[in-house]
């Protein structure tokens, strides 16, 4: 867990890696957006298995993002009314969505 100030937190669904998008389920994860501006830490987006987990599954350093796109759509029926965005890093593209 980073030491930055919590800006926003809540449940989002997270995609599997792009190679597995069609075969694997999207998982519900607890996300925390942190600002490190006051503490000197990087701005991050962390995700956890649930809202009680102490250790994040992954921490995305937002300064390492290459691109962020909002308002994406997926053809899957279950995501038709969801807000989908992507976060592209050199390692991976993440597709979080708010249902």
SS summary, helix count: 0
Radius of gyration: 14 Å
Task: Give the biggest beta sheet.
Answer: 8 strands, antiparallel
Poorly predicted residue ranges: none
Helix percent reads: under 10%
The secondary-structure element order is: EEEEEEEE
Indicate the mean pLDDT: 85
Count of β-strands: 8
What class, by secondary structure content?
mainly beta
Strand content: over 45%
Report the principal-axis shape: globular
The termini sit apart by 25 Å
Polypeptide structure, described:
The protein has strands at residues 5-14, 27-35, 44-48, 58-61, 67-72, 83-88, 93-94, 96-98. The protein contains no helices and eight strands.
Give the structure's gist in a few sentences.
This protein is an all-beta fold. It has no helices and eight strands. Helix content is 0%, strand content 45%.
């Amino acid at each position: 867990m980073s030491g930055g100030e919590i800006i926003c937190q809540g449940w989002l669904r997270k995609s599997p890696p792009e190679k597995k998008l069609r075969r694997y389920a999207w998982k519900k994860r607890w996300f925390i957006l942190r600002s490190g501006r006051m503490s000197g830490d990087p701005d991050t987006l962390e995700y956890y298995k649930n809202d009680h987990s102490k250790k994040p599954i992954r921490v995305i350093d937002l300064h390492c993002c290459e691109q962020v796109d909002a308002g994406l759509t997926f053809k899957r029926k279950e995501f038709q009314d969801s807000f989908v965005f992507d976060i592209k890093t050199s390692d991976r593209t993440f597709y979080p969505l708010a249902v």
